[in-house]
Amino acid sequence: MLPSLFLSHGSPMTAITDTPGRRFLTGLAAGLPRPRAILVATAHWAEERPTLSAAPHPDTIHDFGGFPPALYALRYAAPGSPELAARAAALLNAAGLGAALDPERGFDHGTWVPLLLAWPAADIPVVQLASQPWLGPAHQMALGRALRPLAEEGVLVIGSGSFTHNLGRIRRDAIGAPEPPDIVAFADWMHAALTEGRTEDLLAYRRLAPYAAMQHPTDEHLLPLYVALGAAAEGAKAERLHASADYGVLRMDAYAFTKS
Asked: Which domains does the chain have, with CATH numbers?
């Protein structure tokens, strides 16, 4: 059975800049069974209800501005999978979550940046899932739980976001800056809660984790973590696959949720 993953995709510059997070993503696939397909819950797509991308040949969306031309030249030409989109929608609907299909949606950078690095051949079908960030962590976990059967069917479920995400603190000329103490305190609390299986604490992270609102002024970039956590098999354990920080304040941590 495949694990579920939470990946921090970082800045769009992760695609072209040598950082520890980028090096981790380029080696990610080597440590995993090859999936039949990939479903990505991305922080960069929100809809009124859970929506699956169902285009057979999705475009690459450059959903950012002010970056070097080389970044806009990148494309990720993996096929979509209308069949997987319909299967995932059926699972969500069976759980009463009211899913929909979008036959035109392309890959935003929450999807194509990590997948371009991890599976550069772009030969595995990919489907995206839109979140409802205003409904909070428990809703995202419910989405993941509804999708649990996909792991038994060879589908890798990935939540793609960012372990910390306060863009107002980023200085683009300081990619290797040291981490402030509040970043470390937040990441350490989250790591302990994940590895100790403290699900209720994780659901209440904005109240319990130190400096939570400072790391996530809005929490759409952490919510994909809860999709991955929900999609894991009952009794799965969290394993940190990577930890680093870009610009000192953008944590690039990644976790696998695996049943031993």
From this structure: 4-258 (3.40.830.10)
